[in-house]
Amino acid sequence: MFKKSTANDLVGWLLASPLLVILALFLVLPICMIVAVSFWGATEFSIYPAFQFENYQYLFESSVTYAVFFKTFLFTIITWFFCLIIGFTVAYFLAFHVHSLTWQIALFLLCTIPFWTSNIIRMISWIPFLGRNGIANQSLMSLGIIDEPLEWLLFSDFAVVLAFVHLYALFMVVPIFNTMMRIDKSLLEAARDAGASGFQTLTNIIIPLTKPGIMIGSIFVVTLVMGDFITVRFMSGSQSANVGRLISNDVALLRYPSAAATSVILLITVLITIGIMLRFVNIRKEL
Amino acid sequence: MSADTDLELISVTKKYGDSVAVDNISIKIPRGSYICLLGPSGCGKSSTLRMIAGHEAITSGDVLLNGKNVTDLAPAKRGTAMMFQSYALFPHLSVTENVGFSLKMKGVDKPTRDASAAKALQLVDMTEFGDRLPAQLSGGQQQRVALARALITDPAILLLDEPLSALDPFLRLRMRSELKRLQRSLGISFVHVTHSQDEALALADIVIVMNNGEIEQAGPAVEIFNAPKTEFVARFMGGHNVIKDGLNDLAIRADKIKITSTKTDDATGVEAVVQDIEYLGTSFSVTARREDGTDLNVTVPDAAFSSHAIEIGQTVFLNWTPGDTHHLSNP
């Protein structure tokens, strides 16, 4: 009896070990390295092992840090909001208004087609559209809606959010659609039988039952936006900054300890944000 | 339409594209009666129920409830309530919230609707479960909650879509008698869709047997079982043999046939070979093949069987009195 259970234990550990090794090598170890390096010191031309809080001290004393973290949260919240609205609407349409499974699959694939190209290309493709002499400005001017080109369309916070929403809306559509497809259609009929209007069914039945999907999508969007730096750089024309850009600037200047300290703070911030989000909704049954 | 009719369907037809699900049926349901729509799957019984409930648009025809034409009304405006096959309880709401849901939709305040929900739960003997979630209840308990939720609106007619099919056999019998008791005490009409003959016979004041979107026969349970009008009804209700007899078919109940091992002088006496014997508890079901190759089922009470043992392969004689047979109309 005892022998058998130890043998089973061993098999279990062996089965789990490949994943364990991969996670240890490529996730836990690098994070430990980053944490370690964040305590190192740096001169103009070198970095040296140490255990000092200088990097953190500098980070927390600089007003730039707070401004940049604030901007990051602002981008995150606005992007999350629009992704949620778009994602929920698209998923709702697919799940409840498209009745044939074939069409559901076809339209769902249609949603994913833009994602077959790389993030960068999708981002850059906005530039000729939004530019000063781009399609958007020219169309608006020829329609007589505006007299001169809108300057804020490109290389602005607007462009950054637009690109974020474009890049990440699908991450909201997929989990919400997935949750909605699991809602028993007879529940909607039961609600209708009880006299619920379409809007009442939405607020009383569909939204509460879709919460776990909304939360999973939100986690995707929040982590992706908070960790991004390339979108902000391209779409703001280097005029706007978020935490990711702060880190990438430090890396470019070879200030690795400072970059590591900022990364650690960003990681903790993201984890706290997700921790707060998970307080609201139990996503376990979706996993 | 007379004052003692709850529900009337007039030439109701349902088409899905080109296929006809329900073909021009008319039904009149007397006040306060238990109706069973009985038939095999795909016969149109569920579509009929859903058209009465308002969850399915009617292609042509009219539905009258209490003398009012409700053909184009929304489900909640009809005075019907429906209990769904899988109960369709809202998984995120407590039992009390589930039951009080329709009142919430009407804008009734929480204390009032909780009080009403408690009263409805009392009716189905579920008072102490008000705070639970549906997932924490057994199938039978879920069904009671679904029943309470349907009854809280004080419907004139309760529509039940295969309400017992998800329960295990013991619970099914118990809920069956409870449904009947509830219907009697509430005095409203129940329309119950089922594919089980036993259920229909046990519950219904009027059984409506459907096949291929049409009504094969409608009438009191005893009449349906004892005097099936068509071969389909005779075969579907079970317990009957259909015998080809010239132009018209004859139906005879399996328990009206007597088996003897020797030919008797007085009766019709058909020679047959025993093919199969099944023990059913209180009786035996004997399958015997006649010379022309057709099988007849005979129900032999266990006392008669033990006094005259029959074996497979034995040649027997089947007798019945002509008065026990009746003619079936050909389709």
Structure description:
The complex is a heterodimer of chains A (287) and B (331). With 287 residues, chain A is mostly helical. Chain A has one domain: MetI-like (MetI-like fold, Orthogonal Bundle), CATH 1.10.3720.10. In chain A, strand 1 and strand 2 form a beta hairpin. In chain A, helix 3 runs antiparallel to helix 10 and helix 9 packs across helix 10. The relative contact order of chain A is 0.13. Chain B has 331 residues and is of the alpha+beta class. Chain B has a six-stranded mixed β-sheet, sandwiched between helices. A five-stranded antiparallel β-sheet of chain B has the order 13-17-14-15-16. In chain B, helix 4 packs across helix 5. Chains A and B meet through helix 9 and helix 10 of A and helix 3 of B.
Notable characteristics:
heterodimer, A: 287 residues, mainly alpha, MetI-like fold, two-stranded antiparallel ribbon, 13 helices, 75% helix, 1% strand, B: 331 residues, alpha+beta, 5-stranded antiparallel beta sheet, 10 helices, 18 strands
Oligomer: heterodimer
Biggest interface? A-B, 17 and 23 residues
Sketch the major β-sheet of chain A: 2 strands, antiparallel
Low-confidence segments of chain B: none
CATH architecture of chain A: Orthogonal Bundle
Largest sheet data of chain B: 6 strands, mixed
Number of strands of chain A: 2
- Count the domains of chain A: 1
Measured between the Cα atoms of the first and last residue of chain A, the distance is: 33 Å
By secondary-structure content and strand pairing, the structural class of chain B works out as: alpha+beta
Question: For the record, what CATH class of chain A applies?
Answer: Mainly Alpha
Please trace the helix and strand order of chain A, writing H or E for each element: HEEHHHHHHHHHHHH
- Count of individual helical segments of chain B: 10
Shape of chain A: globular
